[in-house]
Amino acid sequence: MPTRPEIAPNFDHELVKPKASAPIYVDIDDDNAWFVNLQTNQIGRIDPQGQMRLFEIEGFDTDNTRLINVFQGPDGFIWVTIEGDNSPAVENTQQSLGGIARFDPTTETFEAYPQKLSKGAGVVLGVKDSSVWFQYQEEALVRLTVDDSGRTDQQTFPLPDIGKRVMHRIAQGPDSNMWFTSLAADVVSRLVTDQQGLPVYGFDQTQTGDQYLSALPMEWTHLLQPESGYDSPDPLFLSPSAGDEVIATSRLWDRLTGQTVWTIDCDERNSWQSSCRYEWLGEDFRVYDDLSDASGLIPVYRALDADDASLLWYTDPRFVDASIHADSSVAWYAYAIPENATFG
């Protein structure tokens, strides 16, 4: 870092702190490493050629913002959490309040979202790809929903009082709930969200027309980028977050066609795995194999498109050719995405 010559040779914390950049967190996008400097109000980018750029954060009423966390969110934006100035001289003032900011790598500009509580910490993508969750070190978790015009909604989730928490990291679990740490209390916690499950998207491969399914928000972020080679994301159904009868789908890669395929049938999975044609990739979203296992389920169909030998997954037969649906079969059952819900 540019401040490296100022660091004391013995790395004594009290001597280093006033002058060091103090990089505290790093995240990787497709090409770059992004990081935040706790001491110098900057986020940084290191490109594949090893060149470093620093960007001064804007939009907050303090020159001691204390940046804590950084990650790549929806639409390629970089999100940063702000702890705020916590020096005694400004305690309980506007300068001490934290927040969150969105950085546009194309225009190299910030959109600031100041908050009413202090010490912003961890940040993570929400279940809806237009939402971002972040946390305060002591008081609450917050869900922020944004669009191109700015903040559209924000909800604060107060936490039980267990004394001093000092929260620094938050992550979305496979159950769509939010998990977070409280390092001063020796506690790992889970906030149960109001999502029924994770939405499963179908993406079309631009070049081949093959379909790709995903229920992983960080994977959506990649697939939604123009350079990903995928387009036309279609929200198909909700993957249940829990349940005794829920089955995880097996994801495999077809070496012959280059497609990714899914199954919950044990015999089919074993046959595919034992064949040199398929490569096992892991388990993905969760569904049911029996319509009677839960109420309100819809069939998810799998059919072969003979024109390009690709497999299709869909929930509404009206959106596929009648000849394809005539030969279709029910691959599994899942929850319908509520009509009033938007996930993309």
Give an overview in words.
By secondary structure, this protein is mainly beta. It folds into two domains: 4-191, Methylamine Dehydrogenase, Chain H, CATH 2.130.10.10; 197-335, no CATH class. Helices cover 7% and strands 46% of the residues. Strands 1-2-3-4 form a four-stranded antiparallel beta sheet, with no helix packed on it. Strands 5-6-7-8 form a four-stranded antiparallel beta sheet, with no helix packed on it. Strands 9-10-11-12 form a four-stranded antiparallel beta sheet, with no helix packed on it. A hairpin with a 4-residue loop joins strand 7 and strand 8 (109-118). The chain is elongated. The protein starts with 12 loop residues before the first helix and ends in a 9-residue tail after the last strand. Mean pLDDT is 81; it is low at 340-344.
Strand-helix topology:
Elements: H1 13-16, E1 23-28, E2 33-37, E3 42-46, E4 52-56, E5 67-72, E6 78-82, E7 97-104, E8 109-118, E9 120-125, E10 131-136, E11 140-147, E12 150-158, E13 170-172, E14 178-182, E15 187-191, E16 197-205, E17 211-214, H2 217-223, E18 230-240, E19 247-254, E20 260-263, H3 266-274, E21 278-287, E22 297-305, E23 310-314, H4 322-326, E24 329-335
Antiparallel strand pairs: 1-2, 2-3, 3-4, 5-6, 6-7, 7-8, 9-10, 10-11, 11-12, 13-14, 14-15, 16-17, 16-18, 19-20, 19-21, 22-23, 22-24
